[in-house]
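Changelog entry

Holo records now carry the ligand SMILES as an explicit input line rather than a separate metadata file. Below, a converted record for magnesium ion, shown in the new format.
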Amino acid sequence: MSVTTSHAAAPAPLPPRAGTRIRLANVTKDYGLAVPAVDDVSLTIEPGEFMTLLGPSGSGKTTTLNLIAGFETLTAGTISLNGADVSELPSHKRNLGMLFQNYALFPHMTVAQNVAYPLRERKLPKADITRKVAEVLDLVQLTGRDGHFPAQLSGGQQQRVALARAIVFGPKALLLDEPLGALDRNLRATLQLEIRRIHREVGSTFVFVTHDQEEAMNLSDRIALFNNGRIEQVGTPEALYQSPETLFTARFLGDSNVFELSRVAEGTGTWEDQTWPVDSRTVSPRVGAGGRSALVVRPEDVRLVAGDGVVPPGATSVPATIRDIEYMGAYRTAVLSLGRGNAVGRARLDATESKLGIGQPVLAWWLVERQRIVAA
Ligand SMILES: Nc1ncnc2c1ncn2[C@@H]1O[C@H](COP(=O)(O)OP(=O)(O)OP(=O)(O)O)[C@@H](O)[C@H]1O
Ligand SMILES: [Mg+2]
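Structure line, unchanged by the conversion:
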């Protein structure tokens, strides 16, 4: 029987997943600073999931990872692995793999000895150690480098060794804290692909910390976005990008045009002297009655027409002036000043819009379904 797919077809069921479910319930870590480093965080990471903790510097990502690892003690809340409460369990009994930015390899040991280390600690038979080390060096594509010392390897290769050492003993989950932070841009991209492949092949739960939104979008099944010790929003990269619930999320992931609304009511939103249609389905559940809200729309969803041009019926439009045109390689971006207050905005330019130039008055427009109303 042949199967045809259509837009209406249900997605194929996911294959059964290996790995560990990590559950954080009302987790708090208070160092006695003005605000707790981690403040009442609840998060369930599914077995085999690639979860990224993303957020600005100081938002609590590393502290959260260290609490999962058992390197820090909880001020409040619980952490469980596959349903077992490990809140009081010392780090070495949690059986988790760790990978940090600085490779932390033993310099006097060869590649093979470094990778074998966790297996020797666990007193595995010699033959098993030899076999597992060979398997995992193959997985990270370092076969043949067994006898080299860390100093003889590049930064990227050293990080592969550290990765091999972190997964060779079949940990319950792998915790990675900015593991690519020290590498240059090209190497980062290569190792991102490698980590993604290894995650697929190993099938275990990965918790990955980064402050780089692009890296988070590339790698993750889901992203937990941290803001000031709290989780701002959790979801797939698409969900966070397409359906941000707050202005913080909209701004942290990608570029947004932001219009702070003075009023949202009865299917309309008010910005400056303009009243725009609002579809209730595009209003974030976090917009509370009387709370501050903003309309956000991505640059790739904004179109420009020359000042006296026509916009499609039903589209929202705002008068703007082109301030600059940025060449981005694959496309160009018009930098705009919008409305009476000259708010800064951005629109992606198509080849067909090549007639538009700097200084030109335009109408910026977008379809109502492409905008989101978020909590501001
Ligand atoms: N051992 C500690 N003692 C006191 N305060 C700490 C300690 N560790 C972290 N903090 C504070 O907790 C907050 C969160 O720090 P954390 O290292 O978790 O942030 P992060 O999101 O990993 O940031 P970055 O992206 O810079 O690594 C910061 O304000 C930090 O100063
Ligand atoms: Mg950190």
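Spot-checked after migration. The chain has two domains: 22-241, 244-375. DSSP finds eight helices and 21 strands in the chain.
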